[in-house]
Design a protein that fits this description.
Blueprint: E1 17-23, H1 25-42, E2 47-48, H2 61-68, E3 70-77, H3 85-101, E4 104-109, H4 114-119, H5 123-134, H6 139-153, E5 158-159, H7 166-185, H8 195-206, E6 214-219, H9 226-237, E7 243-247, H10 250-257, H11 259-271, E8 282-286, H12 292-299, E9 310-315, H13 318-323
Parallel strand pairs: 1-2, 1-3, 3-4, 4-5, 6-9, 7-8, 8-9
Helix pairs in contact: 1-7, 3-6, 7-9, 10-11, 11-12
Length: about 325
């Protein structure tokens, strides 16, 4: 990875996607981008990718919205990136969101030198000579694109000329995104008094350094915020696990649909197209459990989960958590 960043992301706009991928389709769609997108999907990272071939000059309102509603931007600079005015307009919007919301931008230099992008040399220089002819009546726009490339190429990023194995490069980028998403998720609802203290306490009980399968119980009377805490735990620590599932109002769902139906809903989420959870570090949160017998039926054998897995259960009945074998309550 090139350089480092200590800035803490502060997003004040509603977000829908974890990652927005910006790239020149003709250069990378069928190779690098397809591998990166598949790796993000395997980690349950919601990435926006424009499936359409980039035609025309204007960016659609839907694409503008996707940029606005993404937490992290990955800019894949390839040889012909600058030849696309579409890409350059997309880049400008992304950097505006970076400034406005404090979001992360991760440049990836795919078979192109960072200095070539930063200084607009070689094919980038040729591309801008064409843009200057086409937009000779609006040179301010062209200069804005140049400035955007210079700014983006100066950010901490990834260079395929340094990491020559494409698989290793993809893995590094995905891990970088996961680390940044963990920073995003540690942002508490200011309207929920004391939730930060609760999350920190539960984080200590989760013992992330331990490879044991641990069960953590959250006990308290109705209406004190167990569900809110459960949701925040899920979003805060989700990226530290290979797979995860959150079941809210568990007792109500069992009463309405039956145990088998509830289990059939969350198990596919955990499996995520893999045959077994044995080697997977998973997070399951079951909120509002009232019956320890039903709980055991719902969970099945905990040793079928991978090492380092965590099961979090909330209940109004402390005995239910004890019967479930909670390591800490």
């Amino acid at each position: 990875m090139l350089g480092s960043s200590s800035s803490f992301p502060v997003s004040t706009s509603t977000t829908r996607y974890h990652v927005f991928l910006s790239f020149r389709g003709e250069d990378t769609r069928k190779n690098f981008i397809s591998h990166l997108y598949a790796a993000l999907q395997r980690k349950r990272i919601q990435a926006y990718i424009d499936e359409r071939a980039q035609k025309g000059e204007e960016i659609s309102p839907a694409l503008q919205t996707a940029i606005e509603e993404s937490k992290i931007y990955v800019l894949v600079f390839s040889e012909n990136y600058a030849s696309s005015t579409w890409c350059l307009k997309e880049l400008t919007m992304i950097l505006n969101c970076k400034k406005r919301y404090g979001r992360d931008v991760i440049p990836v230099f795919y078979k192109v030198d960072p200095s070539t992008v930063r200084k607009q040399e070689e094919r980038y220089k040729e591309a801008f000579e064409e843009h200057e002819q086409l937009f000779k009546d609006d040179m301010e726009k062209v200069q804005g694109w140049k400035d955007a490339l210079t700014e983006a190429a100066g950010l901490s990023g990834w260079d395929s000329n340094v990491i020559r194995s494409e698989n290793t490069l993809v893995e590094g980028i995905v891990e970088d995104i996961m680390r940044k998403l963990n920073l995003y998720s540690i942002s508490y609802d200011p309207g929920t008094i004391g939730i930060e203290k609760h999350i920190e306490s539960i984080q200590l009980l989760m013992h992330f350094e331990s490879s044991d399968i641990r069960i953590i119980g959250i006990w308290g009377m109705g209406g004190i915020g167990k569900t809110t805490i459960s949701e925040q735990i899920y979003h805060t620590f989700t990226m530290q696990f290979d797979s995860r599932s959150l079941v809210l109002d568990t007792q109500e769902k069992i009463k309405r649909d039956g145990i088998d139906a509830v289990r059939k809903k969350y198990m596919p989420e955990l499996l995520n197209e893999v045959p077994s959870l044995k080697g997977m570090r998973i997070l399951i949160i079951l909120d509002d459990v009232t019956d320890s017998v039903q709980l055991k039926q719902l969970l099945g054998r905990c040793d079928s989960f991978g090492q380092g897995s965590r099961i979090i259960i909330t209940s109004r009945d402390k005995q239910v958590l004890k019967n479930a074998g909670a390591d800490d309550i």
